[in-house]
Every structure is written in C-alpha cells, then in structure tokens.
Amino acid sequence: MPETLETLLQSSLYTDEHRLFRQTFRQFVEREVVPRIPAWEAAGLAPRALWKRMGEQGYLCPWVDPEYGGAGADFLYSAIIDEELARVGANIAVALHSDVVAPYIASYGTPEQKARWLPRCVSGDLLLAIAMTEPDAGSDLQAIRTAARRDGDHYVLNGRKIFITNGISADLVIVVARTDPEARPAHRGLSLIAVEAGTPGFTKVRNLHKLGAHGQDTAELLFEDCRVPVANRIGEENRGFQYLMEKLQQERLVMAILSQAMAERMLEDAVRYAKARVAFGQPVASFQHSQFKIAEMATELALGRAFLDALIAAHMRGEDVVTRVSMAKWWIGEMANRVAYHCLQLHGGYGYMEEYPIARFYRDVRFHTIAGGTTEIMKTIIARRLGL
Fold it and tell me: pLDDT digit string (tens) for 244-265?
C-alpha cells in the first residue's frame, strides 16, 4: 500500500487531545481565516476583529497561567496554532505575539505588569511587538543605539527601529534600548522597556512595503524624547541582552516550526497538482525527473520533521537546545526555500500565477532565512558553541 505524505510526516509528539484541538482549530482557520487572506494581504495587516475572535476562542497565548486568563496549556498547543496558520499561508503575527513577545512579560515582568498586560494579551485586546532591529543594527544587537536615559521615575527614549513585525498593530512594544552607554562589553548596557501606543514621542512612521508576508504589518518606529515610566521596564536594568539570549531559543524554534509547516503544505499541493496536470499525454508526476524531485523533497521534509519533533520535546523538558535550535532554524528555513523553488517549478507557468498558493508561499518563505537571526548568524552560533 503506498505511503502518503501525511503518514510519512506525521508527528509523534501529539496526544489525542492535541489532535482534537488541531482539528477544531483547523476548522476555525478554514472558516474564519482562509477566505479573508486576500483582503488582509491587500490591506497589509490583519484586522483587530480577527485578533479579538482568536482571543475569544482561546487561541492567543494558550500557555499563560489561568491566573492571568490563559489555559495553562503546554507548548504543543502553540505549535499547533503556529503550524495551522503557516499551512494556509496566513501571515498573521500570532506566533510573534503569543510565543515570542508575551513570554518576556510572563518570565521577567513584575506581578503588576503581568496582571496589567497578560489578560489582555490572551483576549486580543493588547497586541504585542518587540523592537530590536535598527537601521544600523540588525543581527548585531550590541550595536543598538536607541538610548533610554533615566530621568527620575521615567526613561527618555530616543532612537529609530526598523523591520518591526506587528509594529503598526501593536498596543505595546517591548523596546531594546541602551540604558548604560559606558558599559563594556556593550551588550551589558541594554534593557527592555515596554512602550504603549499613544505615548507622546512614540511614532509609528510607516508600514513597510516588502517582498512577501503581506498579511502582517512590518513597521518603522521612531522615539523622540519619549518619556516612559521606569515601572514599564521588563526585568532588571542592563540585563536585557541576557533576557534576549534566553528567549531567542524559543523564537528560533517557532521560526523552524513555521518553515517546516509551510514546506509540508507546499509539497502536498505540488504532488496533488503533479498527479492531476497532464503534459505530453501523461501526468507530470509520472516523469522520472518529477518523481526524483518529489522524493528528494519528501526525504528532506521527513528529516526536518524528525529533528524538529526531538527539538520541541527537548525544549519542553527545559533543556538548553540553543545549538540544535540554531541548526534547525537555518537548515529547515533553507530547506523550505528549496522546496518552494522546486514546487513552483513543478507547477510550471501556473506556479507563477497569484491564484495558486505556491506563488505566495514562494515569496513568504524567503523571510524565514533572515528573521530571528540570519542563516549566517545561526552558523556562527553553532561554530562558537562547538568551540571554534
């Protein structure tokens, strides 16, 4: 009996309860998300109504402690949500909001900050972003120039951030800023400061026009003598870099999850198309070249899924998986880009048409080898942790 891609790539991590949740969430996505993707792509962001709807259904920050309105669910529920949105090409920054930014508040926030912000993160009333990248400081976080000068009970922020996912939609932006300009090494002078939308001196300059991921906004942000209460600092002063290093493990794991899910969907679609499309009197899938390409991609996807599952399990056990996460982030991201290229080629001219999802996937997945740390930075981390 032939093996299907679905059985070949089936994860070993999920229980029956997880699978039931996936089925329910997939129905929600097909009903509430898929029909509206073209409109969100055209608008350059998803509407607040979607975030509210997801919050009502418990699909935002499901891991948050019930004390703050969450379900206290394990990380696999987040992985399911991230996978299912990625599989339909829904470029909504849910993973960023729920699994990248909110954990900073949960891990390093004061009880007052958690009570003030986390329930609204869960409900969809408070959308999050994190502002690291600057025009002259991308992967090199030590080069951050945005300054936060202490003035009594406030910080005065001055600086510019760029490529900030969800920056236009966000109600609260965690800004990485320099609080000690004399610190040596430089990374010891960084802090995390939460800035609320509408704060005088905080300007959302523009929604950037980019190659792909059109359904989520990506902003340029400006801070000009922006006064923020010291009470909005997340964690201790000058320990921001340490907090970033601790949380980037999960951020990069999430990126690998998104890349894997998108690649699996692209191959499923390409196989279905190649079986149906006839050229020279026979299905495209019957040509040896097509079969070899599909076999190669299926092999890489199976390897990616096995590695990713093991990595998720280790992360959930609380292990230090920075080296393996860095491997997964770059390799699965690059693999997804190879899959996008070959799947579009299997579609022929139709793959270049916007009506076919592969065209959008092809654009969108390119982002995955850059965001959250470039492929080159991931290789540098691996080399350093191997003692090179």
Answer: 999 999 999 999 999 999 999 9
Q: Which residues share a beta bridge with 283?
A: 278
Pick the CATH number of 242-385 from 3.20.20.10, 3.40.50.261, 1.20.140.10, 3.40.190.10: 1.20.140.10
Token pair, residue 355, equals 């009506």
CA angle 220, 226, 231 (to 5 degrees): 110
Write the pLDDT tens digit of every residue in 345-359.
999 999 999 999 999
In 3D space, the residue among 62, 87, 6, 13 whose CA is nearest the CA of residue 307 turns out to be 13
| CATH superfamily, with its number, for domain 5-126 | Acyl-CoA dehydrogenase/oxidase, N-terminal domain (1.10.540.10)
Residue range 261-273: mean pLDDT, rounded: 97
Which are the catalytic amino acids? 251
Mapping DSSP to helix (H, G, I), strand (E, B) and coil, where does residue 128 land? Answer: strand
**Euclidean distance between CA atoms 212 and 364, whole angstroms:** 5
Rounded distance between C-alpha atoms, residue 97 and residue 34, angstroms:
20
